[in-house]
Amino acid sequence: MGLIADGFDSIRSIKFRDLLTQIITLGMIFSSALIIWKGLMLFSGSESPVVVVLSESMEPGFQRGDILFLHMNKDPIRAGEIVVYNVDGREIPIVHRVIEVREQHGTKEVDILTKGDNNEMDDRMLYVPGQFWLQRQHIMGKAIGFLPYVGYVTIVMTERPIFKYILIGVLALLVLTSKE
Question: Any idea where the Peptidase S24/S26A/S26B/S26C domain is (predicted)?
Answer without folding.
Answer: 41-128
